[in-house]
Design goal:
alpha/beta, single chain, Rossmann fold, about 325 residues
């Protein structure tokens, strides 16, 4: 892998940063905003992120390798266990820990803070690595003095941490946060080319886009029983066309009808919205075929979960 030409700069910095925190704190929105480009899907529903997503920011002073992780939640089941493992893997790999909090939630319900962060807090309490706490969504309230109890409690829980309130949605404080992160990275050359923004394959990103549209279209518990696998990815250079065949797996027979919709309206809408975004991703025309299959209790099937994890990294660039 070639190095960035900037990696030879004096005191150039490069390192891995784990974005951790509870579900719906805004980690994925923050990552996309810090990169200035979408590399991970975002929905209003918790537990949208299921895998570690790597996003790479490079400038003249540093290269930051962000690891977006699933939200830490007290959930049961094999899928939840797999998601939790992705969090701990990222934390173990990180040079800097960036803990993202939903400031709007904890200002209204301060008692939730320790409940939500007990496992993570215990893990990083004595950590010697730089820890940055980013209370997010500060744009949702005008009176910033309401943040003082939250900031005070966060400091009590993590006295070594630097606390930096932000809004990933409005962009408040993001430039300063990025500069702070860069200053805390170890000195070293870039690990990726300067034009690379993610380690995810196009195949994986396409599957994630489809899953995002499913999350946005479906209601209640249905999205959590849905998985997407890109079974076939073919390039047709003569026609300038990418042909993608993907399967949407649902955990219950009743979900299949809900995904397809009346007269196929649901699956058509999902396909149309996903195709539009995948076209921007690949920079050309896309033919997308979607099928819906029932695979009962797939969230508890370790072999199937391994298959999904393996297929997410291969093919399609």
């Amino acid at each position: 892998m070639s190095e960035s030409p900037r990696s030879g700069a004096a005191e150039y910095r490069c390192g891995w940063v784990a974005l951790a925190g509870p579900p719906n704190a805004g980690k994925s929105t923050l990552l996309n905003a810090l990169l200035g480009q979408k590399v991970t899907i975002v929905t209003p529903k918790p537990q949208t992120t299921r895998n570690q997503i790597v996003g790479i920011f490079t400038d003249a002073e540093a290269q930051i390798i962000f690891m977006d992780t699933p939200g830490m939640a007290q959930l049961r089941g094999r899928l939840s266990k797999s998601m939790t493992q992705a969090v701990w893997q990222s934390l173990n790999q990180a040079d800097v820990v960036l803990l993202v909090l939903d400031a709007h939630l904890y200002i209204r319900h301060p008692e939730f803070l320790e409940r939500d962060l007990a496992p993570l807090g215990a893990a990083i309490a004595g950590d010697e690595r730089p820890i940055i706490i980013a209370p997010n969504k500060v744009d949702l309230f005008a009176d910033k003095s309401r943040m003082l109890p939250l900031l005070t409690r966060a400091h009590e829980l993590w006295p070594r941490a630097e606390i930096f309130p932000i809004s990933a949605q409005s962009g408040d404080g993001l430039g300063e946060l990025r500069a702070l992160i860069e200053s805390r990275l170890p000195v070293g050359p870039a690990q990726f080319p300067e034009d690379q923004i993610s380690t995810a394959s196009l195949r994986f990103m396409a599957a994630e886009i489809i899953r995002e549209k499913l999350f946005l279209s479906l209601h209640q518990e249905v999205p959590y029983g849905v998985a997407v696998d890109v079974e076939s990815w073919q390039e047709d250079p003569e026609r300038g066309l990418t042909v993608i065949h993907a399967v949407i797996y649902v955990a219950r027979p009743m979900y299949k009808a809900m995904v397809i919709g009346k007269g196929g309206s649901g699956i058509k809408k999902i396909g149309s919205e996903a195709r539009r975004e995948i076209r921007e991703l690949v920079g050309g025309k896309v033919h997308l075929e979607l099928w819906v299959k029932v695979r009962e209790n797939w969230t508890e099937d370790p072999a199937f979960l391994r298959e999904l994890e393996q297929s997410s990294g291969g093919g399609g660039e």
